[in-house]
């Protein structure tokens, strides 16, 4: 068998593999020019490293510029809310089983009544506040012996006690007679009694369950309110 030596030159290993796959020659001894091939591979590796280094040295994209817009200027302050003024009560107004008219402060806006015959309560109304407004409404309802009392402005919810109770004004001095339930509650407030303190005072000194009971009893006992006022003025103020 004769031996044939053939010299082939390829540009790369990929090209060499592709060409050999096309032939059907067996027992082929390859002799690769390692020096030349090594130089070529080194050039390809250097080119890849240079491309990677160029991509790594690229500066990061600049952050977005521009300051955030300033917040819009605040609008004009809302005008102060006027205190609630309940409507005057007359003989033509519808009363419930307890003898009081509908009032938006403590009754549901539907103006419906429950099975017991009383106005349906407004949701989430404080029980003490409900009883206070109920007592005011009862006192304002006209009776054959007493004309209708003028409505009063809504009393605010019991605030935290001040550091020093306010001094009574001229209308609650010893010279000013207290004859109505509304004047009595004003005297209590002027002397630093909140609703809880008023109920405690009435219970301890007059054996009545609450200040609301005073409003009911005062319709028939006209000396009750002046008598309570005298005791309030004589007692030390609550701390």
Report on the structure:
This protein has 239 residues and is mainly alpha-helical. Among the domains are: 1-46, no CATH class; 152-234, no CATH class. Helix content is 37%, strand content 0%. The chain is built from seven helices and no strands. The termini are far apart.
Notable features of this structure?
239 residues; mainly alpha
In brief, what are we looking at here?
With 239 residues, this protein is an all-alpha fold. It contains 7 helices and no strands.
Layout: helices, strands, pairs:
Elements: H1 13-22, H2 34-57, H3 127-140, H4 181-190, H5 195-206, H6 211-217, H7 224-234
Shape summary? rod-shaped
Largest sheet: none
Strand content: under 5%
- The ordered string of helix (H) and strand (E) elements is HHHHHHH
The number of helical segments is 7
């Amino acid at each position: 068998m004769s031996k044939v030596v053939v010299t082939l030159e390829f540009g790369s290993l990929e090209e060499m593999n592709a060409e050999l796959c096309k032939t059907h020659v067996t027992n082929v001894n390859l002799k690769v020019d390692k020096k030349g091939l090594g130089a070529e591979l080194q050039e390809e590796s250097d080119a890849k490293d240079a491309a990677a280094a160029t991509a790594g040295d690229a500066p990061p994209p600049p952050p977005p510029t521009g300051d955030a817009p300033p917040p819009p200027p605040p609008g004009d302050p809302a005008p102060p809310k006027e205190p609630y003024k309940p409507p005057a009560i007359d003989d033509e107004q519808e009363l419930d089983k307890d003898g009081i008219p509908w009032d938006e402060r403590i009754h549901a806006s539907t103006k419906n009544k429950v099975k017991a015959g009383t106005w349906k309560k407004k949701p989430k109304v404080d029980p003490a506040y409900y009883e206070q407004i109920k007592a005011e409404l009862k006192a304002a309802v006209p009776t054959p012996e007493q004309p209708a009392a003028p409505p009063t402005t809504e009393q605010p919810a019991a605030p935290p006690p001040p550091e020093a109770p306010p001094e009574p004004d001229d209308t609650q001095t010893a010279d000013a007679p207290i004859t109505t339930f509304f004047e009595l509650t004003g005297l209590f407030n002027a002397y630093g009694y909140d609703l809880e303190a008023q109920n405690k005072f009435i219970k301890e000194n007059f054996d009545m369950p609450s200040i609301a009971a005073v409003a009911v009893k005062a319709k028939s006992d006209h000396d009750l309110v002046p008598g309570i006022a005298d005791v309030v003025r004589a007692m030390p103020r609550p701390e």
